[in-house]
Amino acid sequence: MVGQVELLMFAMRSAIRVNEQVRRGFADMVAAKELSLPLPNFPSAPSVESARSYYEAEGAKYLAAESKLRDLYNGWRSLTPEQTQVFLSRYQEHWALDEADAAPAGKVLQADLTWDDYRALLTVRQWGKSDKKGPSLLQRAAGTLIEIAVDYHLQVPGAVNPASANGKLVKAFLEAIDVIDFAEGDTAKIGTQLVDSLFSSVLQTLRDHPEIAADSKRGQELVSRVAAGVATKTRDLVTQAGNQLARDGLRDFAAALFPALLKSAAETVVGDPGKFLGLDKESEVALVSGVGAAILDATKAHQGLEGLFSQAALDAVTKAALTAAARYPELLGAKGERTGKLVAAVAGALGTDAARIGPGLLPELIRLTLEKSADNLDALLRVDPNDKTEKHLLVVALKQVLPVLASKPPNGAKWEPKFDAADALALAEALVDEVARNPQWLVDRAGQESRLLGDVVAAVLEALRMQAGPRLRRDTAVALVAAAVRAVGNRLELGTADAQGRRVVAVVAAAIVKTVHGDGAALEAAWLFARDEALQRLADLIFDQIAHAGARADLPQIVQGFLDETVDRIRKGESWTWQELAALLLKELEK
Amino acid sequence: MKRTLLAAAAVLALASCGIDHIRTLRDAEETFSRAADQENRGRFSTPEAVKVPVRERDTGGAGLASKITDGTGYRIAAEMTAKLIREKRAELEQDKLLCTAYVIRAFSLWRLGEFDDAVEASRQQCGSAAPRDSALLKVVGALVGIDESNARAFNAEKSAKEQQTTQAQLESALKDLDAADKSLTRDHPLRAYLFAAQLAALRVAQVSPNREGLDDTAERALREDALKRADLILVEYRKYLRCELRLQGEIEHPSVPYWRNLFGTTPLSAKPPACPTP
């Protein structure tokens, strides 16, 4: 329990520090303040010397044509005030005429100089754009940082004591940020807001992941390098951003990414160093920082990416990216610099279809792709023989399937529900697992991209839409499609189209849902298999058995016979078990 | 509760003390800028300032500020900074603001026509100055020289001796202005001011030989020399506007033709530069 005296002392110490920061910031502001500067005295309107110089050179042609002008020119050093006026008026006319002649056709002539034109040039800042400037980002943000530190003081003891492990880490962060320059104006404002957010994240991380501070040197290095990397990259991106909305979006994205990186680092690099065997501490830190920069960079390649992620989704994506980058430095770069490309590639390939299905799907698909990549990226990346570009097979798979899920039911469909993001994600997870196990799904014998996966999903889904009744639940339909794909994974012939374009898995799926949910379905069977887990188990049983039975032209008929007999048993009230059903189907298949 | 209130009071008291000298300097900066704005506006905005031939507004350097503009602003800024430097020198040094204070004081005194005091203020030790302040302190003597030369050109006396003094003073001013320019980064905003000051010096150099009554040959030679040098500076100035400040386009910044019109020159000797992509 913190006592009143301690609180009072802390408040005073904070106040002294606040005062110091306020004073420094104010002094920097006054030193940098723009000054209007007066010019020295000089003849600031055209004079006879101006006219004389002109007629000695470019204006000589006018002298030949005007005798009165010639007289003024020759007597220029003893003109009366009236003659001076005339001489200067002629000069101004001729000079303007020459300017008009010199201007390219159709171009507007230069207007007279006004005070507003010159004011901008005579109002002078202390620093040039390329100067090493005075007020740093840290100084600009100092006031708010102290407020944040005061807020966190009770939650993170020692966070403001430079002798403690927490304090050392906070100091490392502040030192890293101190050397970063944000330009003037909006960029500086965004920089200040970003630093406030990053500082909050550091304190939050200390509270939630004290192991980072416990690993003192590595923790300090991690926090300072990652903070500097995120702030620098964000500054660069903010500078290039086209409008305020984009700049604010980048700031928010960076503010969410930084804690995600620290959290991921705490859970992986620091918390589970076994995953990173082979990487020295320097490389680990470089990797975390590199992955952060790469993910930020992905916002350049895919517009709007920064607005997609919830904090939880970004945490998961960051962790997956970090793990994948650590496992495959040869594919994703020693500092994970190509993880951003992967993120952008997923977003670019799937963004449109994912958006049609539902919000929140795309970041989940990015996470899913990165997570699966962490297990076997080497098998999933291949060079397209046509355009020689690197293709990620999971992206190829999802690109085939998402349009199918997003498409409208065909005319005459009996089952018409629209799939949402959760359905699509569930199916994607199942399919991605299947493709990760067997990348040949997406490559034909000639090494070209195969459409088999997308065709099988489309055929099965169409069969369900045409045969199932309205009681079929969407997640059950997703499970049936996944089971059908697994069956094809076990036996290719089940998924290939025959001469009439029919595929066995689709015909079988249609038979199953027709039997259970179709118009003439027996009530008893419908009652029993209407439960999703029962229907899924029945489908798994059938697909599993036919996958092992080998290629046969009469498979659909055999399955239909099996289903009829099963329904008949149930209708008669006979006893049955899953083992008995499996044995029954096996017996039919062996005939 | 009482302790908490005491703590809050302590926080507020501590947070607000020790910055009065900064606030005063800020006020002095603002006062000076307002006076400079007013003076510059008079030079470039009023028809009589721009359009009327120079002979009709011939004025001496020392009194010009008070004739064109109200010198009160400069006077207040000069006094504020004098008091500040006298009483808060240590605090200003600690906050690295002493040089800024000297800039305000020296420039205010210069515009008030108190040339010796202005130059003396610009030469005071103030520690390490930031780029603008450092360059400005280096050119106070040059600016005074231009003012004095301009006043000499328009005074009642016409003599070769005066012309010699003016030439020497303007040469020295141009050298100092060039050195200050070289001390800055190429994109520094102060360069626009230094270009203008150099052109102002050359404009005085253009009119002075006639006003001092030199013979035709000598007058023309000196006037043409001023023109050539003005042309070179204008070429550099245009490059700076286009390539560093990125003020480029089909239309020239109006300050370029303004100076050409003053000097009586036709298009510059060099074509507009092709600026590298930033």
What can you see in these coordinates?
- The complex is a heterodimer of chains A (591) and B (278).
- Chain A has a two-stranded antiparallel ribbon. In chain A, strands 3-4 form a two-stranded antiparallel ribbon.
- Chain A has three domains: 1-31 and 127-271, no CATH class; 273-370; 384-590, no CATH class.
- Chain A has 591 residues and is mostly helical.
- In chain A, 69% of the residues lie in helices and 2% in strands.
- Chain A has helices at residues 4-32, 48-56, 60-65, 67-74, 81-102, 115-122, 137-153, 165-178, 186-208, 210-214, 216-240, 244-270, 281-301, 311-327, 329-332, 339-357, 361-380, 393-406, 421-437, 452-467, 474-490, 504-517, 523-529, 532-549, 555-572, 578-590, and strands at residues 35-36, 123-124, 381-383, 390-392.
- With 278 residues, chain B is mainly alpha-helical.
- Chain B folds into two domains: 19-128, no CATH class; 130-278.
- Helix content of chain B is 73%, strand content 0%.
- Chain B contains twelve helices and no strands.
- Chain B is globular and about 60 Å long.
- The interface between A and B is large, with 80 and 99 residues.
What's the layout of helices and strands?
The complex is a heterodimer of chains A (591) and B (278).
Chain A: H1 4-32, E1 35-36, H2 48-56, H3 60-65, H4 67-74, H5 81-102, H6 115-122, E2 123-124, H7 137-153, H8 165-178, H9 186-208, H10 210-214, H11 216-240, H12 244-270, H13 281-301, H14 311-327, H15 329-332, H16 339-357, H17 361-380, E3 381-383, E4 390-392, H18 393-406, H19 421-437, H20 452-467, H21 474-490, H22 504-517, H23 523-529, H24 532-549, H25 555-572, H26 578-590
Antiparallel strand pairs in A: 1-2, 3-4
Helix pairs in contact in A: 1-7, 2-5, 7-9, 8-9, 8-11, 9-11, 9-12, 11-12, 11-13, 12-13, 12-14, 13-14, 13-16, 14-17, 16-17, 16-18, 17-19, 18-19, 18-20, 19-21, 20-21, 20-22, 21-24, 22-24, 22-25, 24-26, 25-26
Chain B: H1 2-16, H2 20-44, H3 47-50, H4 61-68, H5 72-94, H6 98-111, H7 115-122, H8 131-153, H9 160-182, H10 190-211, H11 216-244, H12 255-263
